[in-house]
Amino acid sequence: MSLGKEALAVVAGPYRYYQVLWLYTQFPEYRWSILLLPYGKGNESVSDLCNKSKSLGIFEKIYISDMIGQDSSKVKQILIILRMMLYYIVGKKRILMKQLILSQTEKKEFDVFFIGCEYSIIEGAVMGLADEKEVYVFEEGLGDYISKKKFPRFSFDEIMSYLVTRMGYFSPYTYFELENTSLCIKYASLPKLLRKRSYREIRPLFVGDLASTLKYKALLNSIYEIPKEQLKNSEIVLFTAPWDWGIEDKKYCLDKMRQWLTTRYRGKHIAIKKHPRDQEKYEWNTLKISFLPSQIPAEIMAEYLTNKEIVMMGVSTTILSLLTKAENIKIIQFDNLHGEYERNIEEKVILLNIEDKVVHL
Q1: How many CB atoms lie within 10 A of CB 36?
Q2: pLDDT tens-digit profile of 267-313?
Q3: What is the pLDDT of residue 246?
Q4: Cβ pair 70, 174 in contact under 8 A
Q5: pTM of the predicted model, to two decimals?
Q6: 2: pLDDT strictly greater than 60
Q7: Quick count: other Cβ atoms within 10 Å of Cβ 259?
Q8: 18-35 exposure pattern, b = at least 16 Cβ within 10 A, e = fewer
Q9: For 78-104, b where at least 16 C-beta lie within 10 A, e where not — what string?
Q10: Most exposed residue of 55, 97, 104, 323, measured as fewest CB within 10 angstroms of its CB?
């Protein structure tokens, strides 16, 4: 009996890990390994996912990436970009892509790749080799459904992102469209609404047969403990957003949020589900609050939120599972924030037809 193909899942953060476990049930014939990418500041998310991967016992190898990312110093970012430019100019881009991937997998080769998006160096490199490797792209989030920029503003991040994206390496900060996806197979929660169509095939995410669905639930139940009692005792569940998305006046936003919650929910129990990249402490003494585990995917808790009042700081992928479970949802939009934030949130609200759920602060 021949061994199955060797597959590598490249993962950043809890939501993509949540998807990888489902994909594992769809391709049980593969021999799986996983590469955990940096996610936010600190290593809490990577450490948590590493421990969960060891506990599951389904991955032959677990790799921890040390690749440069958007949280790395500007010097390191410039050096890797200069290296990319040099290889591009001399026509050796593919060689660099292979080198980058092998540098993260102890020089081990893989037949199949599962990646989450195009804004990390490794995932972009994988896409660039889709003519010789089998590449599946799962859901990045709601960013899959909104438009990208055409040209950069006069800022270091956007200009560098534009240059690297146009060279076909990857799309830092997902500002611009990476074009080399035509040989990849894409999975999406809302296939018909997917903005980008240039894939070899587009498949629905989380749609499988009964056997694979039961296996998937068993995997989730073995590593995630849902705080049922805490959710039962909470009247409101607040989902926060990461504060690394270009917010200049964070204090203003937090003060507005606290004032609104105090006016509306004083005396009621609010359970706060922090975004995995959210480092804020939320020391709101005027409110009765508790904290849900930040590293558990919110999607897993959706069925326990049917009768709760849901407040969301922005529009994240979480809302895809909540819209069919919870009726009372409020989306916070901070009116002092304009530009990219305003465009991003308004486009998502229109996409999902949830204008009536927006609360302006």
Answers
A1: 24
A2: 999 999 998 888 889 989 889 999 999 889 888 998 899 889 999 98
A3: 59
A4: no
A5: 0.91
A6: no
A7: 12
A8: bbbbbbbbbeeebbbbbb
A9: eebbeebeebbeeeebeebbeebbeeb
A10: 55
